[in-house]
Design a protein that fits this description.
By secondary structure, the chain is mainly alpha-helical. It is 84% helix and 0% strand. The protein has one domain.
Length: 69
């Protein structure tokens, strides 16, 4: 299985787990919970990457500062 297939499987598994939590916690329908879960995952993943990248740049500015500029 390729990396893209593994990433897709992991994303769908995370989406289902997140929708399951929304369904149990707030009593939402599975349909609505899956859309809320997708929004949360698609918003939180890029924000987490941005925060980690910023943290790494501040931690070691001499080696990482100009990597992506």
């Amino acid at each position: 299985m390729g990396y893209l297939a593994l990433a897709e499987f992991a994303f769908i598994a995370a989406l289902n787990a997140d929708a399951f939590v929304w369904n149990l916690r707030f009593g939402l329908s599975w349909y609505l919970a899956s859309y809320i879960g997708a929004f949360v995952l698609l918003f939180l993943i890029p924000v987490a990457v941005l925060v980690i990248d910023t943290w790494r740049r501040r931690l070691r500015p001499d080696t990482i500062a100009n990597t992506f500029d």
